[in-house]
TrEMBL record:
Record-stated family: Belongs to the actin family.
Entry protein name: Actin
InterPro entries on file: Actin, ATPase_NBD
Catalytic activity: ATP + H2O = ADP + phosphate + H(+)
Organism field: Aphanomyces astaci
Amino acid sequence: MDVARFTKMGYAGNAEPSYIIPSTIAVGADNNASGGRTGGGRVGQSQGIDDLDFHIGNAAFENSSTHQLNYPIKQGIIDNWDNMEKLWQRCLFQHLRCEPEEHYMLLDPSLRSLTGTVIDSGDGVTHVIPVADGYVIGSCISHVPLAGRDITSFIQRMMRDRGEVVPPEEALEVARKVKEMHSYVCPDIVKEFKKYDANPAKYIVPYTDIHPRTKQPWTVDIGYVACIFP
């Protein structure tokens, strides 16, 4: 399993992951009230009935109106061990349908000996890792708490400041979809703005979705948000 913004899971020997789901969990009110172990704690403690009232992945967003959404990993660090344990358990038993005691965890490092710099920017954190002859220079690793989720939050604020009418409970998810579906890197932001101003009908694209409760369609204009990010 590879857990980041999305959790990729599968078996060794497969050409691609068997399942790819958002690393998100939605817990019930009674379950969430007890809080979670942060920064550490033992895994595998006994669970009560309330602990079973949770959903992960896409099901978490589908139940966000009745459950509290939580991202167990923030800026590359496990922030809530209880919810992280629940996410792992549901991945193993519901999706992979396997017994953890019968499967080993395998760390597979790269076999190449290269010199360079690895920039790994995920959902919660960006790491800049220097490598010399295949060895990581640990003392020079940079941990930057700025990554994809920050861009998503910034897009959300930009759309709110522009007065775009987005259902409040869908605002963060809409911002994520706009980032992943429409945003791009431009070499010259000024030229890009002029292009949008010269032909707005061509470049300012609409985003349409269905309200989860009223089931009514709604539309917003993407506008400059697409070329400003990332």
